[in-house]
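Q: Second attempt. The first request was missing the SMILES, so the protein and flavin-adenine dinucleotide are both included now.
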Amino acid sequence: MKRTADCLVIGGGIIGMLTARELAAAGREVMIVDKGHLGGESTWAGGGILSPLYPWRYPAPLTALASWGQRHYPSLIEALREATGIDPQWEPSGLLILDADEAARALQWARAHGQDLVQIDGAELAGLEPGLGPRPGRALWMPGVAHVRNPRLIKALRRALEVMGVRLCEGVSVNELLCVGDRTRGARTSAGCISAPQVVVAGGAWSASLVTGLGLETGIEPVRGQMLLFAARPGVVRRIVMQDGRYLIPRRDGHVLAGSTVEYVGFDKSVTRAARLSLHEAALNLVPALGGFPVEAHWAGLRPGNRDGLPLIGAVPGMEGLYINSGHFRNGVVLGPGSARMLAQIMGGQPVSVADPDPFRPERSCVPA
Ligand SMILES: Cc1cc2nc3c(=O)[nH]c(=O)nc-3n(C[C@H](O)[C@H](O)[C@H](O)COP(=O)(O)OP(=O)(O)OC[C@H]3O[C@@H](n4cnc5c(N)ncnc54)[C@H](O)[C@@H]3O)c2cc1C
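A: Got both inputs this time. The predicted holo structure:
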């Protein structure tokens, strides 16, 4: 069977879904193919914090892309809620960072980029998060940082795409990109060939394997992250709290996510006892009362890691009609809206209004293998 679309998006994680949404909104006929369920991989496993962790450690272009997403999330959530009736639970809880040793650098970054980040003392900290364990004398506070509930965001996006007429092919794997000379023609999948003049690789951690057949390597690799879910009650944790790379995220119904590990173990998505113990200990150090609640779930996801910390967004060099939107590593949820708009503008031949696209151009790391 040979099906056709204007644009074929390979991979239905948050990046593929948001890209498809932008393309459909621009009047294109869009099809998404996913080997599993839409949003079922890294996007489902993630925490949904709408800020890079320790944002001052990232290059300026990433700050620009994240800021665009942060500004546009409220309207995205509202649009999804209106179109689908599903609420992704956008919560502006704020982010407390208890590692104060980087305060000078953080404050300088905040001034340079117009970000809302202040240093607070122990009393203010106790007021913001009464349940904290041993409290440092000072902390960093980002009151504007929000989080979303990933499974609900996925549901809402999926429904919104259906409403927009995007064709969703789940349980269908892309085996090979179809090219004639230096022009993309579509893809060969487990359910037959799909013909499309524009193809977007949004395969998350698996993106590299999609372009190796073209003799290209991307630098994108899987990075495992494990997470625990405490069945706590509302109020036990009020803010996103972070220390030494470990964080807690309070959901509206009282559940608390505790994340996350960063492990270079290939495509192994299993969970480990060592990570469970370490995440549990870090969570109880932050908020001791969590010790009174059971761990309801423990899972792992594979982030699409990338060498230079910036995602690849744009045309794949040397192959007309082929685009990539991948390599968002720890920040795909916050970077997703800006990345999707940027790529849709590039594909439509329009000026890019989101941020300077040059630092994200695939040429820098999408090179002959
Ligand atoms: C534990 C953890 C915590 C995180 N916390 C946050 C956070 O708080 N904030 C934040 O912004 N980000 C966070 N992230 C990162 C974020 O989840 C990712 O950056 C984002 O989900 C990447 O989205 P994606 O669409 O590129 O990849 P994915 O969600 O992995 O989607 C890729 C899709 O491509 C499909 N696919 C792959 N190959 C093929 C093929 N050959 N054929 C068909 N389909 C294919 C897969 O089935 C998959 O559904 C976290 C990640 C993890 C694991």
